[in-house]
Amino acid sequence: MYCATFIFAKKQFDDEFHRLDQTIAAAARSLPGYLGEETWENPGNGFVSNVYYWDSLDSLQALISHPAHQQAKAAQANWLDGYKVVISEVLRTYGDSRIDHMLAPSVHSAG
């Protein structure tokens, strides 16, 4: 399993941003290999983190290649005050059963 974490600092979002954001999210959810997503905001620095989970790098690459993603990437400076992307392989997940999460240990644990 892989995750793509998109960390960014916000500027002002307009209608075009929201349209592209919704299009990209819908495209991700429709792709084979999509496992889920989460969004986090750090109140200390205001950074936002969108985390997408994928069953393979090929699945992730399909989103990266999507025309709406390419359009948003080209225009990111209009809406973002900087960004980082982290692509990582998930080696294992663990925890107890009290959190209902897409990465439930009983499903994805490697030990």
UniProtKB/TrEMBL annotation:
InterPro entries: Dimeric_a/b-barrel (IPR011008)
Domain of life of the source: Bacteria
Record SUPFAM superfamilies: Dimeric alpha+beta barrel
UniProt KW Oxidoreductase keyword: yes
Key words, A-Z: Monooxygenase, Oxidoreductase
Record-level Gene Ontology MF annotations: monooxygenase activity
Protein name, per record: Heme-degrading monooxygenase HmoA
Taxonomic source organism: Variovorax guangxiensis
